[in-house]
Design goal:
- The protein is an alpha/beta fold.
- It has two domains: about 5-40 and about 290-405, Lyase, Ornithine Decarboxylase, Chain A, domain 1 (Beta Barrel); about 110-285, TIM Barrel.
- About 30% of the residues lie in helices and about 25% in strands.
- It has twelve helices and 22 strands.
- It has helices at about 5-10, 25-30, 40-55, 70-80, 90-95, 115-125, 130-145, 180-190, 210-230, 255-275, 285-290, 320-325, and strands at about 10-15, 15-20, 20-25, 35-40, 60-65, 85, 105, 125-130, 150-155, 165, 175-180, 195-200, 205, 235-240, 280-285, 295-305, 310-315, 340, 350-355, 365-370, 380, 405.
- The strands form four sheets. Strands 4, 16, 17, 18, 19, 20, 21 and 22 form an eight-stranded mixed sheet that branches. An eight-stranded parallel β-barrel has the order 5-6-7-8-9-12-14-15, surrounded by four helices.
- The longest helix has 19 residues, at about 210-230.
- The chain is elongated and about 70 Å long.
- The two termini are about 25 Å apart.
- The model has no long low-confidence stretch (mean pLDDT about 95).
- Keywords: Pyridoxal phosphate.
- This is Pyridoxal-dependent decarboxylase, exosortase A system-associated.
- InterPro entries: Ala_racemase/Decarboxylase_C, DCO2ase_PEP1, De-COase2_CS, De-COase2_N, Orn/DAP/Arg_de-COase, PLP-binding_barrel.
């Protein structure tokens, strides 16, 4: 996808990008300073509506809050999705502050502290267990509080998913319980009184290949079907993971959602309905829900030429949007889509390199990219900034002020 595709998705008027219906300059004036992140509520709703229309009606949609925990985003999505998945005590509290029922909040991730586990048990949150140590802490918390904890086992599958930005299953992993160990763990749980609702399998993230995702989901159902034979009660929760990717560069092709949905219809209406009639089948998405609804806006502070190369120095940088700099899991750095937000109808006229205000050559937001001639005070916009932006970046580095975030 090209920057012009992203401009078209947001809309533009009189040469300015629009966000939530507002011209960018007016939005910047309303925010009061740059840099800032802006998330378009309309695009967020459109993505949820698209998913609802394509996916099986029985399939529940869970928001993986780690992708973007901004309170306004979480509050908005809590009214649009069926569940929220959290990965820390603070995220759990943010989810519990929404209208989402506690039993519709799941808590996954390795290294949950005893205090976090106790709080989750007390609140009635579903704990997705990643190890036998976590299991023992859940049992202890339940006994101490006089409550019956509800859990699911996160399973490290015996297969890997190719084509994922980050592999989170297959081989040795810090995530989940190895599939071959699950039967023994279930026997151990049977003596504790803990309520096991089912299983969670998450094999990888940021995948743009529909066929690979469909294969992983099918293999997940086969794996859970085998593991369910060792559970002394019906499976009531089956989290298929997610891993849907979004296109970050011009070479990336968007995920074929219709193809993925076709496979999910076959699974949900076929083997899942037959084998697990009491189960809530769950699709857990973060980046795919919020990534394309967000932009990062930063202002040009300086324009300089060094030995024939033109630099635009902006007031933001990798301390706010680390992923665009290439330092968040990219083996080879590639440019995110970038435009001059107040000149989107002007033809690109020069090759420039956009750098931030930090004292490191790693602070690179766009390398040798074609842009309209940009001057001091122009607004540089980086697209695909709705997920793993601010909270996945080293905000405290060099002591610059944090950026604002707005949902419009």
């Amino acid at each position: 996808m090209t920057p012009h595709d992203h401009v078209a998705a947001f809309g533009a008027t009189d040469g300015e990008l629009r966000v939530g219906g507002l011209p960018l300059s007016r939005l910047a004036a309303r925010v009061g300073s740059t840099p800032f992140f802006a998330y378009d509520r309309g695009l967020l709703d459109a993505r949820v509506d698209t998913l609802r229309a394509a996916l099986p009606a029985r399939l529940e949609l869970s928001y993986a809050m780690k992708a973007n925990p901004m309170p306004a985003v979480v509050q908005h999505l809590a009214r649009r999705v069926d569940r929220i998945d959290v990965a820390s005590g603070l995220e759990m509290q943010a989810a519990l502050d929404t209208a989402m029922r506690p039993d519709r909040v799941s808590f996954a991730g390795p290294g949950k502290t005893p205090a976090e586990i106790r709080s989750a048990v007390a609140a009635g949150v579903l704990l997705e267990i990643e190890s036998t140590t976590e299991l023992s802490r859940v049992v202890a918390a339940g006994d101490d509080l006089g409550l019956t904890p509800t859990i699911a086992l996160r399973v490290n599958p015996d297969f890997a998913v190719k084509g994922s930005g980050m592999r989170m299953g297959g081989g040795p992993q810090q995530f989940g319980i190895d599939a071959e160990d699950v039967p023994a763990v279930l026997r151990e749980i049977a003596a504790t009184g803990v309520d096991v609702l089912g299983f969670h399998v998450f094999a990888g993230s940021q995948n743009l290949h529909a066929a690979i995702i469909a294969e992983a989901q099918s293999r997940t159902v086969d794996l859970v079907s085998a593991l369910a034979d060792h559970l002394d009660r019906p499976v009531r929760y089956l989290n298929l993971g997610g891993g849907f990717g979004i296109p970050y560069t011009e070479k990336d092709q968007p995920l074929d959602l219709d193809a993925v949905a076709a496979g999910l219809h076959e699974l949900v209406d076929g083997p899942i309905a037959a084998r697990f009639p009491e189960a809530s089948a769950v699709l857990e998405l973060g980046r795919y829900l919020v990534g394309e609804c967000g932009i990062y806006v930063t202002r040009v502070l300086d324009r300089k030429v060094s030995r024939g190369k033109t630099y635009l120095v902006v007031d933001g940088g990798m301390h706010h949007q680390l992923a665009a700099s290439g330092n968040f899991g990219q083996a080879i750095r590639r440019n995110y889509p970038v435009v001059v937000g107040n000149r989107v109808d002007t033809a690109s006229g020069e090759a420039v390199t956009v750098v931030g205000c930090l004292c490191t050559p790693l602070d690179l937001l766009g390398d040798d990219i074609a842009l309209p001639p940009a001057e001091i005070d122009d607004l540089i916009v980086i697209f695909q900034a709705g997920a793993y932006g601010l909270t996945a970046s080293p905000t405290a580095f060099l002591g610059h002020a944090p950026p604002a975030e707005v949902l419009v």
